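Hi F.,

I've been meaning to write this up properly since the lab meeting, where we talked about keeping a consistent format for the predictions we share between groups. The idea is simple: the sequence comes first, exactly as it goes in, then the structure tokens exactly as they come out, then a line or two of notes. No screenshots and no reformatting. I'm using this chain as the first example so we have something concrete to point to.
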Amino acid sequence: MIRVLIVDDHEVVRQGLRFVLEQEPDVEVVGECGDGHDAVRAIRERAPDVVLLDLVMPGLDGLGVLRAIEDRADRPAVIVLTSFLADDRAVAAVRAGALSYLPKTTAVDRVVEAVRAAAEGGSVLDPGVAALLVERVRSTPGAEGGPLAALSRREREVLAGLSRGRSNREIARALSLSEETVKTYVSSLLAKLGVQDRTQAAIFGLQQGVVALDDALTPRDPPDPPPR
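Output, unedited:
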């Protein structure tokens, strides 16, 4: 069962997301929060697997929540779901550890897909957001070159999987490896690239052309059906 916490300062948004998610047999909504301070407490007390997080809230905003939980050993996967798609916000959220970044206009089945992907370590990025992130990485001094050359062939294959938004399980299946081996490769390539998490590695891979942006944004393979 995937435990989800919904964080948004608009009650109607929280209720809508709860309704959609509670139709899924493998998802449990463990709580709702209307501000960032309550969200940090709920993350500590309810241990969600996935957090759906608004960026713009009174008091402690979404970026503040991401930074407050950044060093937690049991940090949940965070999906930013927001009305604001400005590149500065997107880049800041990814750098602070957001796994996926989607506009609130995203279709409900895409949100559910993002929740399931996040629970397995995969990411789902809106095409427009992904393009903005790649462009920002391209314009960052020192972003190109060196680190990619340090990766082994297998690490590059795993990086390609990350850039396609694949989970460790999906990468393992594609490369005929164990999930534990893929996890080891992910840890190694993160260290070599000097990035904090798999989403930052995925953006780096897109920027470096490990996979084409259009290829990375094609629909994911259908997941295994949830138990009913």
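Notes:
The chain is about 50% helix and 10% strand.
The chain has two domains: 2-119, 140-216.

If this format works for you, I'll send the rest the same way.

G.
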